[in-house]
Write a structure and sequence with these properties.
3 helices; Thiol Ester Dehydrase, Chain A; about 140 residues
Amino acid sequence: MADHRTLPTRSDFRFWWPITVRWGDMDAMGHVNNIMFFQYVESARVGFFEAMGWKGWREIGPRQGPVVVSQALHHRKQVFYPAELQVGLRCAELRGRSFVLQCGIFWRDSDDLAGDGTTVLVWFDYDLGKAMDLPLDIRRALTDG
């Protein structure tokens, strides 16, 4: 089934993370393996959290932090070594205990979209083993970024 939603553009994102495609990122078909796109987004997500000032659960006190609960990625074009990419990220939606990050994967300095998607993350307390309300400082950082 075709995806009829509006595709993201560079102007949708303020946070960018550079990705250099490695030879080992390719599969037997000669293009970047689909699972690598999730790793690219993961690297960008960690950079995004660091850029908004979150240093990990050690800084907060209790062992709390974001946990991925679902991801979707739409592959728009094949990517080949030695591509230079940029992953754009933004918070698309805030919920009580979770938030949605939208991503766009573009060729560096280009409007050419390789892929896009969303990641839903829940704020999790590791000691209690359950989701928690998003802390106010995290909520503010997500809306400012």
